[in-house]
Design brief:
Radius of gyration: 19 Å
Helix content: 40-55%
Strand content: 5-15%
Largest sheet: 6 strands, mixed
Structural class: alpha/beta
Number of strands: 6
Strand order of the largest sheet: 3-2-1-4-5-6
Shape: elongated
Length: 215
């Protein structure tokens, strides 16, 4: 099955499989469409604008630029001609909402079946960038503890260094690598260029996916 789904990998000599989280195991738009609700409220109030209009502007900006772009809130406030001091305060408020948000997320049946299949055959690990509390909330909402042991899950925001991909610092905190895996026997799934760079830096084989569909 794996060979037909991900034909670039010779699965016979794979010993461990790792994953990114957002955009890899679930459609990140499901999260964005939720969290941008209260954020649109704050931006609309600051801009004296309509909530629905501002919500749609935020969603379209994210669809165009993605999560790797970190100035969406600033850009939207600037376009609405909000005074800079006010905009800076509102951006801080929006980031607070974003990081503390408790999402209602669910894995697709397809991804759940794939993770169950992988977990029967390989030790699994997860490396995710982002806020410690938020990423933990996503992991809990998605029920990923069914397949990932806590000691094999690392969130960059939980590390003292807070170093994100493509740095491989996170791998020092993953228990399975205490067993001395040959990096060439590890496959890593991710959706962004930074995930590919991370895998290459670690010596892993990389599979580019969107919600676990190969791209």
């Amino acid at each position: 099955m794996l060979k037909s789904l991900y034909p670039t990998v010779d699965w016979q000599d794979v010993k461990a499989v790792g994953f990114d989280l957002d955009g890899t195991l679930y459609d990140e738009f499901d999260f964005i469409s939720q969290v941008y609700g209260p954020i649109a409220d704050k931006i609309a109030a600051a801009a004296g604008s309509d909530y629905s209009y501002m919500y749609n502007v935020l969603l379209r900006s994210w669809l165009e630029k993605g999560s790797s772009y970190n100035r969406i809130f600033s850009d939207v406030l600037s376009a609405a001609k909000v005074e800079q001091e006010t905009a800076d305060r509102v951006v801080g408020d929006c980031l607070g909402v974003f990081r503390a948000f408790q999402p209602a997320l669910k894995l697709s049946a397809r991804v759940a079946a794939l993770l169950a299949f992988f977990a029967e055959r390989y030790p699994l690990f997860l490396v995710s960038d982002g806020s410690c509390e938020l990423q933990r909330a996503k992991i809990e909402a998605l029920g990923l503890n069914r397949w990932f042991r806590p000691e094999n899950v690392v969130i960059s925001g939980c590390l003292a260094s807070r170093v994100e991909k493509p740095s491989t610092v996170a791998l020092d905190s993953i228990a399975i690598f205490n067993d001395g895996f040959d990096p060439g026997t590890v496959v890593f799934f991710g959706d962004r260029a930074v995930d590919r760079l991370f895998a290459e830096a670690a010596g892993f084989r990389f599979v580019g996916v969107k919600n676990m569909w190969a791209v």
